[in-house]
Amino acid sequence: MKIHLEGTIRDILPEKEGVSNNGYEWSSQSYVLQEEDGTLVEFKIFGKAKIERTALKVGDVVVVSCSLES
């Protein structure tokens, strides 16, 4: 099932970095999205390159898409 959320970036949380059990470095950046009805949704982007390429800022209007599986 695909989900699409549209809203404004309200907050950018501190970037997190670490090393996995397999020795791979990782990073993630969390964002708070406010939908038009006021609902707040947190989403994350994983990977330093993706974070830098996306370069989201507070106030940006975005559409976030994801697929859910069980």
Gap between N and C termini: 10 Å
Query: Mean of residue pLDDT?
Result: 94
Q: Any idea what the shape is?
A: globular
Total DSSP E strands = 5
Q: How many DSSP H or I helices?
A: 1
Q: What is the gyration radius calculated from CA atoms?
A: 13 Å
Q: What is the percentage of strand-forming residues? A: over 45%
Q: Structural class from helices and strands?
A: mainly beta
Helix content: 10-25%
Q: Main β-sheet: number of strands, strand sense, barrel status?
A: 5 strands, antiparallel
Q: What is the helix/strand order?
A: EEEEHE
Low-confidence segments, given as residue ranges, are: none
Could you characterize what this model shows?
A hairpin with a 4-residue loop joins β3 and β4. The protein is mainly beta. The chain has one helix at residues 48-54; strands spanning 2-12, 16-19, 25-35, 40-46, 61-67. The longest helix is centred in the C-terminal third of the chain and has 7 residues, at 48-54. 10% of the residues lie in helices and 57% in strands.
